[in-house]
Amino acid sequence: MTSARPQATHHARILEDLRRRILDGRWAPGHQLDKEIDLAEAHGVSRMTMNKVLTQLAQEGYLVRRRRGGTFVAQPRAQSAVMEINDIGAEVAALGLTHDWTLLRREITRLGAAERALLDMPADAGTGDVLFLQGLHSAQGAPFCLETRAINLAAVPAARDMAFDATPPGTWLTQTKPWTAARNTLRAIGVEGAEARHLGLPVGAACLLILRKTRSEPDWVTCVRLVYPGEAHQLVAEFEPGRAS
């Protein structure tokens, strides 16, 4: 009977070698690894063994594997406080990365049922004109967050004349329209369709979804859908002793 010990030894040796390259900075965040078959040949193991090593490192959060896109060293995870409204540009900057915003769609319209459902809009959102926007936030050139947003033009008429091709709408709204109430709904989703394509992810890839609504009484101000690749983001909640749960 053939012993599995040599195979296990190869796995452990390569795992430690690749993990060390990431931790000591030889492979920086965003570094693209060689193809799996080339790595296997370089380390003198089967492709199956190398696949198991790369899969384990991805599960541990060290690597990101994209089907037909390659394997990359993972970026540090952004953190958002659950009870706050964070600026996405600031989230990226906090990681020491360069933030870019690309406007994908801008339209003044009256939203249909499908778009209202996508944004989980409240019943009192009405049927008046909204500014519908979609754009991609990038960190160091890699997709970071896909933003889909409706702005109530009755509450924020100045938004009608804003192009939002250079400034993300969330940044502008924070500086322009104070809000009195906000609600975040958090979900884990498998990304699909155009959202997957914009984020460069395979259909079904795990993502974090944040649905946010803000109000400035008596009107709703904006409803926004933020989709983050699962490996790039985490949420943080802080609690104090003695506070009600």
TrEMBL record:
<protein>
    <submittedName>
        <fullName>GntR family transcriptional regulator, histidine utilization repressor</fullName>
    </submittedName>
</protein>
<dbReference type="InterPro" id="IPR011663">
    <property type="entry name" value="UTRA"/>
</dbReference>
<dbReference type="GO" id="GO:0003677">
    <property type="term" value="F:DNA binding"/>
</dbReference>
<dbReference type="InterPro" id="IPR000524">
    <property type="entry name" value="Tscrpt_reg_HTH_GntR"/>
</dbReference>
<dbReference type="InterPro" id="IPR028978">
    <property type="entry name" value="Chorismate_lyase_/UTRA_dom_sf"/>
</dbReference>
<feature type="domain" description="HTH gntR-type">
    <location>
        <begin position="8"/>
        <end position="76"/>
    </location>
</feature>
<dbReference type="InterPro" id="IPR036390">
    <property type="entry name" value="WH_DNA-bd_sf"/>
</dbReference>
<dbReference type="InterPro" id="IPR050679">
    <property type="entry name" value="Bact_HTH_transcr_reg"/>
</dbReference>
<dbReference type="InterPro" id="IPR036388">
    <property type="entry name" value="WH-like_DNA-bd_sf"/>
</dbReference>
<keyword id="KW-0238">DNA-binding</keyword>
<dbReference type="Pfam" id="PF00392">
    <property type="entry name" value="GntR"/>
</dbReference>
<keyword id="KW-0805">Transcription regulation</keyword>
<keyword id="KW-0804">Transcription</keyword>
<dbReference type="GO" id="GO:0003700">
    <property type="term" value="F:DNA-binding transcription factor activity"/>
</dbReference>
<dbReference type="Pfam" id="PF07702">
    <property type="entry name" value="UTRA"/>
</dbReference>
